[in-house]
């Protein structure tokens, strides 16, 4: 998973013998992203600023653990990952430093940033249904998935996964803990099978008729839409997509984002990089890397399949607030038996 560039190797080797020169034109990026378009994203930053990027890629939890272990000697300048709950976890561990930037404040909507970290793209958690098995009018809201009509028809990934915990967190905010627990119990009672696999596995199960309805992040849907494989095309013919809760609080959205680390040796470069990610050009690359929407108004995705999903009302709950209830969501899902 990890790629160590020669420049980083040099940096690592130099740590023991001489202090790292803070003003060197370099940025150490710890990233849980690994998309093809990211190459262009980073190359363009270096071209604009002369700052080279050393990238350490890994899984979110590994990278967080690594930054913690490195402590004050950590070479990490910026950490980027997906999901508000994970970003909030890094924040709760005290790993981020607050960033004050007029540019970031002007360009990123209020509800998509905190003092310590910023969202750079969004994805929505939508309802997927089998067109032959389920009437879309009956699955217009997350709440509907817990109703008696869908008995034995619901497939969904684990209740411990951050995507579902973030959704649970939003539901706690909008409906309260008691209603969210009733919802979780109703959902579990409707399961067609025990939770297994990721969102794409649920979409395939819906298409195959193993279940009638599920929940998925939008980029998995777009990935299938963009696939050349015959099987994937067949999947897309069988399923429909609903924007949940359009008449109430809006569809739950989550984010990809990042922030500057507290012990960043290159703080100026780190802020420049975050500001760059909010530029129109970088927004297109960043969002498209995973078929997501840019956060900056006016930035375009240039992704016809993503755009074909159309417009919808999204939940405007602040990403910082969103992540506050995840521990409570986990307790509720555990009690409800959503494994
Ligand atoms: Fe994902």
Short overview:
The chain has 339 residues and is α+β, with helices and mostly antiparallel strands. Helices cover 42% and strands 14% of the residues.
- Return the string of H and E elements: HEHEHEHHEHHHEHHEEHHEHHH
Helix/strand-derived category reads alpha+beta
CATH hierarchy, class of the largest domain: Alpha Beta
How many β strands by DSSP?
8
Compute the gyration radius: what is it? 21 Å
Strand content: 5-15%
Q: Which stretches are low in confidence, meaning pLDDT under 50 for 5 or more residues running?
A: 9-22
Bound molecules: fe (iii) ion
Write the layout of secondary structure elements.
Elements lengths: L5 H10 L10 E6 L5 H13 L2 E6 L2 H11 L7 E5 L1 H9 L9 H6 L10 E13 L31 H14 L1 H13 L9 H9 L5 E5 H9 L3 H9 E4 L10 E8 L6 H11 L2 H9 L4 E2 L9 H4 L11 H4 L3 H11 L3
Parallel strand pairs: 1-2, 1-3
Antiparallel strand pairs: 3-7, 4-5, 4-6, 4-7, 4-8
Helix pairs in contact: 2-12, 6-7, 6-15, 7-15, 8-10
Structure description:
The protein is of the alpha+beta class and 339 residues long. It folds into two domains: 155 residues, Periplasmic binding protein-like II (D-Maltodextrin-Binding Protein, domain 2, 3-Layer(aba) Sandwich), CATH 3.40.190.10; 147 residues, D-Maltodextrin-Binding Protein, domain 2. It is built from 15 helices and eight strands. Strands 1, 2, 3, 4, 5, 6, 7 and 8 form an eight-stranded mixed sheet that branches. Helix 8 crosses helix 10. The radius of gyration is 21 Å and the shape is globular. The two termini are 28 Å apart. About 4% of the residues have low confidence. The structure holds fe (iii) ion.
């Amino acid at each position: 998973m990890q790629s160590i560039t020669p420049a980083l190797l040099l940096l690592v080797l130099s740590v023991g013998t001489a202090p790292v020169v803070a003003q060197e034109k370099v940025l150490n990026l710890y990233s849980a992203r690994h998309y093809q378009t990211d190459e262009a994203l980073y190359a363009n930053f270096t071209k604009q600023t002369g700052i080279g990027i050393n990238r350490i890629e890994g899984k979110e939890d590994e990278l967080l653990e690594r930054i913690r272990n490195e402590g004050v000697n950590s070479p990490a300048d910026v950490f980027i990952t997906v999901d508000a709950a994970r970003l909030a976890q890094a924040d709760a561990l005290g790993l981020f430093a607050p960033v004050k930037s007029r540019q970031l404040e002007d360009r990123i909507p209020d509800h998509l940033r905190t003092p310590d970290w910023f969202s750079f793209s969004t994805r929505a958690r939508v309802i997927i249904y089998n067109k032959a098995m389920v009437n879309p009018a009956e699955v217009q809201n997350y709440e509907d998935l817990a109703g008696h009509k869908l008995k034995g028809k619901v497939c969904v990934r684990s209740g411990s996964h951050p995507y579902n915990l973030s959704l649970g967190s939003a539901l706690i905010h909008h409906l309260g803990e008691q209603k969210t627990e009733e919802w979780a119990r109703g959902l579990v009672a409707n399961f067609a099978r025990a939770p297994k696999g990721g969102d794409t596995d649920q979409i395939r199960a819906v298409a195959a008729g193993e279940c009638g309805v599920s929940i998925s992040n939008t980029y998995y849907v777009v990935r299938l839409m963009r696939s050349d494989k015959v099987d994937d095309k067949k999947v897309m013919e069988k399923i429909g997509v609903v924007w949940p809760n359009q008449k109430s609080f809006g569809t739950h959205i989550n984010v990809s984002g990042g922030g500057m680390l507290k012990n960043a040796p290159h703080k100026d470069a780190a802020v420049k990089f975050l500001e760059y990610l909010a530029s129109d050009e970088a927004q297109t690359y960043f969002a498209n890397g995973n078929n997501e929407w840019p956060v900056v108004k006016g930035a375009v995705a240039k992704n016809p399949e993503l755009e074909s999903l159309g417009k919808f009302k999204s939940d405007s709950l602040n990403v910082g607030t969103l992540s506050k209830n995840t521990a409570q969501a986990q307790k509720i899902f555990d009690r409800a038996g959503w494994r």
